[in-house]
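Justification of computing resources. Each target in the renewal requires a structure prediction run like the one illustrated here; the chain below, 432 residues long, is used simply to show the kind of job we budget for.
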Amino acid sequence: MESIEPFERLGLALAIGAIVGVERHWRERDEGGGKRTAGIRTFMITGMLGGVSGLIEQMLSAPVTRHGLVTIAMFVTFSVIFALYQYRESGAEGNFSVTSVITAMTTFALGALAVVGNAPLAAAGGVALVAILASREILHRFVRNLSWDELRSAIVFLAMAVIVLPILPTAPVGPFGGISPSGTWLLVVLLAGISFLGYVAVKAFGQVQGELVAGAINGLVSSTAMAVTNARLSATGQSAILLVAGAMAANAVSYLKVLLYVAILAPSIAERLGPALIAASFLMIGFSFVFIKNDTIKHTESHTRNPFELFAILKTALLLVVVGFLARAAATWFGKSGLLVVSTLSGLADVDAITVTIAGILDTIGTEFAATALGTAVIANTVAKMTYALILGDRAYSGRFILVSIAAIIGGIFMFETTPMMEWLVMEGLPK
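Resulting structure tokens:
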């Protein structure tokens, strides 16, 4: 360490104790002197004590430093003394919370880390500790309002994403490029996450605003999965109008996402296809607000809705995997010369991949053909969503979804066909 660095690190340990002490002292600010085990001063000294123990370690011989005996001894001694005093206070007040003891131990450890370890990590740990302490009311209210279905769904989702997904092989299996077990399960996790996110959005923002918020967010991830999820939910008796509005919001955002991709990767395609994508997305957004405005049904929060139904999600994921496999097989049969066919088939499952592909070969196919191929993929993707709505959704949902989608396709095609003419008229109207 340089001569000034120990002072800086010890100051950080003291600061960590100070911010923790402010929160702890504030909660017991009405208590008189000597009525609380620890306040701002005690926690400042606790952070400093952890830092001092780290400094002592560095000044001692290597064997002791290597094993951290000084820090361990001081930590154990401090924890026992603090716990005894807290035990006496808890007995007098009838309070069985151990939060202050754990907080003091953590403050000591962060103070030691600030001196002998990673200082930025110690600072971040101190801020995180204070944030957790200050969120007591929010966390307690969250747990009180948490249902068993929500807790179970969150646990299952975490197991799917954190335990199962990492152990699956990523190498494709089968012909025509194969199917990746990891990629397939990732699709299952994606569908489950979208379903759970939609549930949380509805619960947080209400039935009406929640569907739009969920749709807009999920449009950035997978509008196809959102359309499939909402179609499936409509068959369970939930509001078809709100579910269509959410699916349309997702579709609109997905169109704008395609435009953003090509604007970054191939600006010339964005100039040619952009007006059509914007027109189609605005039509979908407009219809979403019209549906919601004309929705006269008084919606109440559904307490029976499952955040996600695993078996239904597995069946939906299998459907999308089959479609994607057929698309790759057809692309292999047609070869590179059938780019429009490949774009159409790829768009049945996903637009992102074909967007990147077309942008990468722009120099060989030209802007006009690239825009046409990408537009074809977008239309195919929309038609696929219409098919999913027809198969999975009820009549009220599928009818509205298909009508709005057709209107958006027609509006986009009209804009695509007339844009060159409008550009020509603008150029001819310019003074020579």
